[in-house]
């Protein structure tokens, strides 16, 4: 009976030992599987823990979006006013002979935006795209024509010859006779004389138009 009891005890110990070895093997295998699976799990972290790229940032708005663009602006250039002498225009007169025209200056800027709001502006170029045109005023230098001098009536001496006769000067007097004749004057004329008006002094005795023949 004691032998049988010892045999049973040995068998039980052997079974326990085998069970312990099996359990240890199972645990070791599980640990190995878990160790092999760990790196894969590390590479498969949730998407929320990854760093977003630029496109994702623009879509989600989690970062400031910076953009640039060129912008052109214009402003007027005032024209000058000049005067020139014009010998074809009468002195004392003037006229605008060429109207003035404003020019155009174009400035180009490089503009930086952050989230659509302008934050910086840099001048890239500045040039005159349309030059101004001067306003020209012509000033007359041509001398004015001189006014005609009126004749002075006081300066004209009266004729001392009677206008009714020609060919010789018949004096204007109370009476005129032919020189060398029988008249008593007081004035005389040396003929012949031509009667062109009224023979007031009766010098044409034969009425042929010639007196003092």
Describe what this molecule looks like in 3D.
This protein has 3 domains: 1-36; 61-142, Resuscitation-promoting factor rpfb fold, CATH 2.20.230; 160-213, no CATH class. The protein contains 2 helices and 11 strands; from the N terminus they run H-H-E-E-E-E-E-E-E-E-E-E-E. It has helices at 2-43, 54-60; strands at residues 66-77, 81-90, 94-98, 103-114, 117-130, 135-142, 165-166, 176-178, 187-189, 193-195, 210-211. The strands form 4 sheets. The chain has a 3-stranded antiparallel beta sheet, with no helix packed on it. It has a 3-stranded mixed beta sheet with strand order 2-6-3, with no helix packed on it. A 3-stranded antiparallel beta sheet has the order 7-10-11, with no helix packed on it. The termini are far apart. Mean pLDDT is 77; it is low at 1-5 and 30-60.
Series of H and E elements: HHEEEEEEEEEEE
| Overall number of strands | 11
Total count of domains: 3
Overall CATH class of the largest domain: Mainly Beta
Q: Count of DSSP helices?
A: 2
**Structure classification:** alpha+beta
What is the CATH architecture assignment of the largest domain?
Single Sheet
Distance between the ends? 226 Å
Q: What are the SSEs and their pairings?
A:
Layout (H helix, E strand, L loop, with lengths): L1 H42 L10 H7 L5 E12 L3 E10 L3 E5 L4 E12 L2 E14 L4 E8 L22 E2 L9 E3 L8 E3 L3 E3 L14 E2 L2
Parallel strand pairs: 2-6, 8-9
Antiparallel strand pairs: 1-4, 3-6, 4-5, 7-10, 10-11
């Amino acid at each position: 009976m004691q032998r049988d009891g010892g045999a049973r005890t040995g068998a039980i110990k052997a079974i326990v030992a085998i069970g312990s070895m099996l359990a240890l093997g199972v645990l070791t295998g599980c640990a190995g599987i878990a160790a092999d699976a760990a790196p894969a799990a590390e590479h498969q972290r949730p998407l929320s823990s990854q760093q977003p790229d630029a496109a994702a940032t623009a879509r989600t708005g989690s970062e400031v979006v910076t953009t640039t663009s060129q912008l052109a602006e214009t402003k007027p250039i005032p024209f000058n006013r000049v005067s020139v002498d014009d010998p074809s225009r009468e002195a004392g007169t003037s006229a605008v002979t060429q109207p003035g025209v404003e020019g155009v200056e174009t400035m180009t800027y490089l503009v930086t935006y952050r989230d659509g709001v302008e934050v910086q502006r840099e001048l890239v170029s500045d040039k005159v795209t349309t030059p101004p045109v001067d306003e020209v005023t012509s000033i007359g230098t041509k001398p004015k024509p001189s006014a005609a001098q009126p004749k002075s009536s006081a300066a004209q001496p009266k004729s001392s010859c009677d206008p009714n006769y020609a060919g010789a000067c018949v004096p204007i007097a109370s009476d005129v006779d032919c020189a060398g004749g029988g008249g008593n004057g007081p004035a005389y004329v040396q003929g012949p004389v031509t009667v062109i008006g009224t023979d007031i002094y009766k010098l044409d005795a034969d009425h042929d138009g010639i007196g003092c023949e």
